[in-house]
Every structure is written in C-alpha cells, then in structure tokens.
Design brief:
Blueprint (H helix, E strand, L loop, with lengths): L1 H14 L2 H7 L7 H21 L4 H4 L1 H21 L6 H21 L5 H28 L7
Helix pairs in contact: 1-3, 1-6, 5-6, 5-7
Length: 149
C-alpha cells in the first residue's frame, strides 16, 4: 500500500503548490519537470522495493523508511517551524507515518528482527533522499548544458 499512498501524496503536493511553497521558504528546487521526474523515480523505487519483499528485507523496508524521512524532515518539521502545514503535510501525517509503522510492525512479526536490517533501510533511504540534492548541487559543474527544468 505504500506506493499508492505515495501517489496520493504527490497529488496533494501538486494540488496545493509544493513547488511554490518550496521557493517561498528558500528551498532549492528548479521546477515542475524536476518535481515530476523525481517523483516518478520515487514510484519506481517503491515498486522495485515492494517486489523484493522479504527476500531482501533491508531493501524492501527502504520505501517505508523513505516515507518516514519525507514526513518528518520535509513536512512535519517545516510545518512546525513555518507555523502552518505545507503542501503534502496532510498525507504525510495521515498516511505515511501510520502506514510505515504498520509496515515495520509486520516486518517484525514476519521475523525481521535484526536492528541492522532497519538501520540499513534507514541509511539507504537517507541516501536516496540526498541523491537529488547532490545532483542539483553538481549540475552547474558537470552538466553538458543547462539542466532541464
């Protein structure tokens, strides 16, 4: 259920103007085409990790870990510091956190008990969150031409 819920989250961000909000708070994000591509990749990651299932628990738990990071660092924290919910905050709080908690609980019930598995999932998810930021930082130096926005 994580992938369809993430799709609903993307719809909320689009409907409530996430990009405009990001620019208003000084967040570096070039444009809607980057938003679309980034979220398409997130969905591909979600489908891929879901297909791995319990054969590779650390990888399969990356997506719910990604949802937790997104909810807390990109929605809850900025909403609290900004004094009002940002675009995507509703679905992040209502869907992401409870569904991620249920997913981790089910993993535990299925026998995924090593803390290293959960730590690896969190580290991988953190790396995935940092990847687009790194690419945006490096693009002026390494891109062959102007980045597509």
């Amino acid at each position: 259920m994580c992938v369809p819920v993430y799709g609903l989250h993307i719809m909320e961000e689009l409907a409530f103007g996430w990009l405009e909000w990001a620019h208003s708070v000084g967040m570096m994000f070039p444009g809607w085409s980057t938003f679309y591509v980034t979220n398409a990749v997130v969905i591909v990651i979600g489908v891929t990790t879901a297909m791995l299932g319990w054969r590779m628990p650390a990888c399969s738990l990356v997506f719910p870990a990604l949802m937790v990071i997104n909810a807390l660092l990109f929605h809850l924290l900025p909403s609290l510091t900004g004094g009002h919910p940002n675009p995507g905050c509703i679905s992040a709080m209502v869907f992401f956190l409870p569904l991620a908690a249920l997913t981790f609980r089910e993993a535990w019930r299925a026998g995924v008990r090593a803390w290293q598995t959960y730590a690896a999932a969190a580290l991988l998810a953190g790396g995935l969150q940092l990847w687009p930021v790194l690419l945006l930082e490096l693009s002026p130096m390494l891109a062959a031409g102007p980045a597509q926005r």
